[in-house]
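Hey, I was hoping to borrow your eyes for a little while. No rush at all, and the record is pasted right below.
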Amino acid sequence: MDKRYRVHFINSLSGYKSANLVGTIDRHNVTNLSIVSSVIHLGADPALIAFISRPNSVARNTLDNIDSAGVYTINHVAQSFVEDAHHTSARYAADISEFDQTNLDEFYTDLTAPYVAQSRIKLGVEFREKIDIELNGTIMVIGEIVEVIVEQALLQDDGKLDIVAAQSVAVTGLDEYHTATSLGRLAYAKPKLV
């Protein structure tokens, strides 16, 4: 296959993935914002979450900042700022903040890493482990969720978040974004006796 064709084809095979912005800050207080589509839940207790960083064949400001600061944020991308979120995939030098190149605003708590103010679901994460994947040079970054900022209206009675109401988007491939529609919730599955 042609290289570009193969990239689009392979990247879309896994289907819908969550679109998130990872917020970091470097030792010179320059913020960085990077869109990722590989965030995965690893466990609830402790609350672990991971994402895949591409190979270090070029500068990876996000990964460098996580290594030095030890904290980062994960922010759901919402329908209202998809274009700005997508623009964070442009390759800016380390001394240029993607916040300054978009209409996205920084938001802070006691955690030193920047949140995306416009995001309705924000996770504060402390770095825990990095796993090198030798097969393709990618890196799995594992962190523990230490802070969650979410609008009360999005929190359901049983603790589940309403990501449809949050207008969180999904992504397929490298550049196509989707809104979600709930098909409803199903009961906890138990073995069927035949």
About this structure: The chain has a mean pLDDT of 93. Residues 16-178 form a domain with the Pnp Oxidase; Chain A fold (CATH 2.30.110.10).
